[in-house]
């Protein structure tokens, strides 16, 4: 952890923009420090900094196995971690502190509470390559307005109030109170160190900034935020504490949540536009959480405001890793969309990304919810939406590996008599149904027992229900349970079906035995290598609407969605929502599966998200790829994102920017849900792959999240590089 | 049926909006710098990428003319025997062999390009026919343009415009935008570098302007050929008289055709040429601005 006090020479220009430039350079230094540490590899940038080397945390065991679980274990250990946590003060920053570690990392190796076994589910989970999500944490969105209205003091009062109304739930309330007291302990120590820094710092502007920082945090110890600066600092505190707890990274509808504070400050004449931008930029620096801008209000009006523009401009000032999503709809301020696209190409940092209101809202309404609710389900996660404070979801935690299911089906068919893609589909579809059933059973287990494993002590505080009922959000506290089940490997699976149909059944170039023997031999040997090339060159997913790969993709997606939503009946009132996404599991999910007929060798990665495999089409037409992904959308309000790699030269004129805007509007007309874009050229990515340390500020959008390229492992860098090279 | 080399979807530089570009095969000019050399001849051609050859030998078994044969250093190609029938490419899955030039019907092309209809409608785009030379297959071009218009798709053609105007007139009602290449104003130089006089081109531009159809004139900037202010100023002066010129666009030299020359086994006279730098482009733009206001650099 680097000292930031008194490190600048007297006379340094320190306007808001200059301070941000300094902070940006310091972030690059912090990023270099993080390179090589597995906790920070292959993930989001997170805004975290390294712990001091001499920091050690000794946990308090509450279980006979030496670990800790449940309300008591987590509240005591969280309180201790907060009370001991290092403090980082940067006088150029508007806000105090950074997060540095989290309990999820500190207790690595501890599985689910051993008192609650799900061994009976494990054989089928392994057979079908299921990531079950049992014991997974966070991955739903809180309602920041609860915390902003009450502050830590108000939250404590609310807990005491409902504690008196819910006898028998003391374990819940005591744990929540202890969690807040832990955060307040960290704040108190931060204030003590800020006071020392004020004495020490020699540059008058920075000294004054530290004074304001201290005043802000002394108030926030108990009080609710009153100004934009206080609101942003409160959000920082919640985010940092929540990250320290379980790396929770959900954000909020940033423009609407903060706009009232901004407008109040303006009315009082207490703040300039630049000052506002500085606060927002520092909030984004503190942690590049997933924030949404724009979209429709519950009653259907465009929410883009002057303040939405200010948020974009603040992110531009910072020019760093960021996870802002712009929600796109037909009534939106089109100038805002243009501005977003301009920043995307100007900064080349992978932000903003774009979500499609129509498909997201209409899909969610198919689950029986109103349009008003659907519009409030905002982009606050890697590939996911959430109703702030209203639902529990396990978003992005549960994956069914469709390619593994395919390979199980293929092995079974080759052992029995009839061999055809018709028969293969029947067997695949049957296994997929079983895979979804055992996945839902796992989720039901999680909902029942996770409270004894790891309660959501932080997100409970900003949710509607847990505090009022005295119940953890996982275990009955939430208003709604909309459980996410993602399929993974749709392109690999569709291409596998298509290759077999084309080469064996339509063209007669291969027999089933030849194809299967080639797979079993991992395509080794000249003949098998030839077969691999032949299969790889088949009609691919993303090839166009007549392509067999696209046809199979639609069939696979429809079948999967039907399986997932059919689980609602058995587990009501819990609902299940399908999606297609692999997150950064493309490598891990691939390692579960032997060679497949799409030409993929043993244990190679599956396809990324809902994207086709690189080389899906000779011209790499984005429209063909986009159409394919639009056609396989799961249809119930969760996403199957489109990931694009665009050359920086593509939008060098106003006309070209407009064409990109039109492309974005069209895919959302066509049913797309989420669009992630990288702006990067081949030369740069090749040079960075060769020597990542020379590109410490190169940011790429890996999947739903952005990351510093230098923090990716070589295996993961290769995936990103291959994607970009094949798209060029 | 027409002969097409490729259909490129999500094309952003071949006219307004998001477009699909259909590349016809066959051209009446022989521009020495052509970056689509596979579109010059009307008939199919075989491309060879030896670095991708895995030596599987599948091509040997199917070649009807003996053009593919096993040699001391692997599989060899006897070009004189090759009829570009495509039998070898059909069994080559490594990408070492491919054929440019596919006979396609209007329906087949529509089936491909109409998949992006929503993008055209949203962006004011459509379909551009390019080449090669679109006017070298006039009957097929007419059929395709009519079909596109019947589908409500906006149309454009990229052409060297070196054909008798009556032929152009037959297509005129079905084309929304003309994108015309004007490589040189000097007739002798034009003939030297493209094989044809530009007299017809210049006359046709004048005639087109009389019809009221909008058009764009584009000049590929070729090092040592027309990358000088005097030539560009002459072209701009010529264009300054036209009422329906949308804009004049100078296209920087495109070296991306080099690998195609190699794969076709033909000499590339501009192998060492590189795109013009920013200063040179600014100078040429300045020369054009003496006579024109609407100028673009592509």
Spatially, the strands of the biggest sheet of chain B line up as 7-1-2-8-9-10-11-12-13
**Number of helical runs of chain B?**
11
Average pLDDT number of chain A: 94
Number of domains of chain B: 2
CATH fold category name of the largest domain in chain B: TIM Barrel
Low-pLDDT ranges of chain A? none
**Total number of helical segments of chain A?**
27
Label the structural class of chain B.
alpha/beta
Binned strand content of chain B: 15-25%
Radius of gyration of chain A: 26 Å
Kindly provide the name of the CATH class of the largest domain in chain B: Alpha Beta
Number of strands of chain B: 13
Question: What's the CATH superfamily of the largest domain in chain B, by name?
Answer: Aldolase class I
Strand elements of chain A, count: 15
For the sheet with most strands of chain B, the description reads: 9 strands, mixed
Largest interface (CB within 8 Å) is between: A-B, 29 and 26 residues
Distance between the termini of chain B: 33 Å
The ordered string of helix (H) and strand (E) elements of chain B is EEEHEEHEEHHEHEHEHHEHEHHE
């Amino acid at each position: 952890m680097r000292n930031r006090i008194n490190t600048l020479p007297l006379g340094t220009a320190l306007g808001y923009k200059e301070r941000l430039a300094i902070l940006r350079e310091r972030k690059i230094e912090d990023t270099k420090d993080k390179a090589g540490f597995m906790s920070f590899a292959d993930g989001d940038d997170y805004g975290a900094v390294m712990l001091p080397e001499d920091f050690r945390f000794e946990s308090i065991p509450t279980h006979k196995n030496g670990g800790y679980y449940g309300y008591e274990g987590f509240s005591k250990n969280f309180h201790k971690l907060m009370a001991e946590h290092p403090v980082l003060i940067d006088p150029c920053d508007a806000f105090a502190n950074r997060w540095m570690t989290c309990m999820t990392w500190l207790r690595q190796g501890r599985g689910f509470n051993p008192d609650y076994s799900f061994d009976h589910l494990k054989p089928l989970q392994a057979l079908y390559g299921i990531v079950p999500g049992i014991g997974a944490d966070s991955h739903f969105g809180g309602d920041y307005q609860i915390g902003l209205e009450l502050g830590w003091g108000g939250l404590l009062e609310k807990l005491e109030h409902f504690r008196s109304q819910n006898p028998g739930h003391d374990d819940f309330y005591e744990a929540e109170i202890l969690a807040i007291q832990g955060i307040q302990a960290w704040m108190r120590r931060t204030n003590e160190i800020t006071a020392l820094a004020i004495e020490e710092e020699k540059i008058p502007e920075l000294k004054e900034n530290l004074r304001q920082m201290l005043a802000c945090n002394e108030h926030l110890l108990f009080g609710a935020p009153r100004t934009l600066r206080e609101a942003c600092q409160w959000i920082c505190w919640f985010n940092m504490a929540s990250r320290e707890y379980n790396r929770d990274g959900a954000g909020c509808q940033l423009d609407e949540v903060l706009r009232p504070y901004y407008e109040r400050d303006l009315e009082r004449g207490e703040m300039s536009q630049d000052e506002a931008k500085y606060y927002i930029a520092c909030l984004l620096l503190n942690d590049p959480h997933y924030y949404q801008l724009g979209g429709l209000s519950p009653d259907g009006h465009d929410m883009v405001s002057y303040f939405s523009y200010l948020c974009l401009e603040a992110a531009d000032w910072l020019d760093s890793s960021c996870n802002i999503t712009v929600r796109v709809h037909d009534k939106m301020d089109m100038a805002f969309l243009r501005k977003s696209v301009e920043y995307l190409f100007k900064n080349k940092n992978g932000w903003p990304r774009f979500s499609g209101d129509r498909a997201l809202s209409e899909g969610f309404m198919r689950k029986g919810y109103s349009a008003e609710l659907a519009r409030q389900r905002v982009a606050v996660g890697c590939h996911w939406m959430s109703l702030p404070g209203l639902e529990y979801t396990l978003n992005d935690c549960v994956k069914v590996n469709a390619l593994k299911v395919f390979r199980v089906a293929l092995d079974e068919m080759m052992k029995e008599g009839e061999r055809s893609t018709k028969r293969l589909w029947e067997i695949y579809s049957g296994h997929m149904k079983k895979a979804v059933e055992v996945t839902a059973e796992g989720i039901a287990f999680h909902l029942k027992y996770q409270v004894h494993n790891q309660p959501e002590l932080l997100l409970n505080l900003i949710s509607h229900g847990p505090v009022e009922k005295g119940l953890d959000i996982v275990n009955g506290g939430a208003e709604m349970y909309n459980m996410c089940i993602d399929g993974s490997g749709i392109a690999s699976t569709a291409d596998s079906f298509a290759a077999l149909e084309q080469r064996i059944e339509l063209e007669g170039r291969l027999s089933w035995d030849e194809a299967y023997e080639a797979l079993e031999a991992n395509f080794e040997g000249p003949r098998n290598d030839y077969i691999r090339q032949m299969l790889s060159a088949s009609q691919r997913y993303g090839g166009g609407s007549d392509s067999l790969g696209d046809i199979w993709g639609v069939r696979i997606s429809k079948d999967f969605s039907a399986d997932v939503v059919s689980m609602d009946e058995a587990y009501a009132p819990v609902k299940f929502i399908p999606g297609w996404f692999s997150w950064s599991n493309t490598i891990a999910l691939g390692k579960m599966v032997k060679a497949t007929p799409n030409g993929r060798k043993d244990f190679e990665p599956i396809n990324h998200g809902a994207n086709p495999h690189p080389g899906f089409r000779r011209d790499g037409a984005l429209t063909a790829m986009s159409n394919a992904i639009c056609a396989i959308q799961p249809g119930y309000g969760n996403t199957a994102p489109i990931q694009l790699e665009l050359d920086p030269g593509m939008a060098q004129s106003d006309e070209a920017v407009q064409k990109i805007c039109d492309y974005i509007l069209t895919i959302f007309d066509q049913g797309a849900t989420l669009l992630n874009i990288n702006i990067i050229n081949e030369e740069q990515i090749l040079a960075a792959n060769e020597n990542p340390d020379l590109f410490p500020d190169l940011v790429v959008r890996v999947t739903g999240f952005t990351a510093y390229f230098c923090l990716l492992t070589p295996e993961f860098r290769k995936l990103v590089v291959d994607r970009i090279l094949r798209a060029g | 049926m027409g002969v097409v080399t490729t259909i490129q979807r999500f094309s952003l530089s071949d006219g307004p909006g998001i477009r699909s570009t259909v590349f016809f095969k066959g051209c009446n000019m022989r521009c020495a710098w052509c970056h689509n050399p596979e579109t010059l001849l009307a008939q199919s051609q075989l491309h060879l990428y030896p670095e991708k050859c895995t030596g599987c030998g599948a091509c040997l078994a199917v070649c009807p003319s003996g053009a593919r044969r096993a040699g001391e250093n692997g599989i060899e190609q006897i070009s004189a025997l090759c009829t570009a029938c495509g039998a070898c490419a059909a069994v080559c899955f490594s990408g070492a062999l491919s054929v440019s030039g596919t006979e396609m019907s209007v329906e087949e092309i529509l089936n491909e390009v109409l998949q992006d209809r929503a993008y055209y409608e949203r962006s004011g785009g459509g379909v551009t026919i390019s080449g090669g030379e679109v006017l070298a297959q006039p009957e097929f071009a007419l059929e395709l343009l009519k079909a596109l218009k019947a589908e409500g798709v906006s149309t454009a053609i990229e052409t060297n415009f070196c054909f008798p105007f009556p032929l152009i007139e037959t297509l005129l009602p079905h084309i929304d935008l003309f994108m015309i290449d004007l490589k040189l104003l000097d007739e002798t130089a034009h003939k030297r570098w493209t094989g044809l006089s530009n007299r017809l081109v210049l006359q046709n531009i004048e005639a087109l302007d009389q019809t009221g159809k909008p058009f764009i004139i584009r000049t590929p900037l070729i090092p040592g050929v027309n990358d000088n202010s005097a030539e560009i100023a002459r072209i701009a002066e010529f264009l300054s008289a036209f009422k329906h010129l949308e804009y004049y666009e100078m296209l920087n030299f495109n070296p991306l055709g080099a690998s195609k020359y190699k794969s076709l086994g033909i000499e590339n006279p501009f192998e060492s040429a590189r795109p013009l730098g920013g200063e040179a482009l600014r100078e040429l733009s300045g020369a054009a601005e003496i006579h024109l206001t609407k100028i673009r650099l592509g």
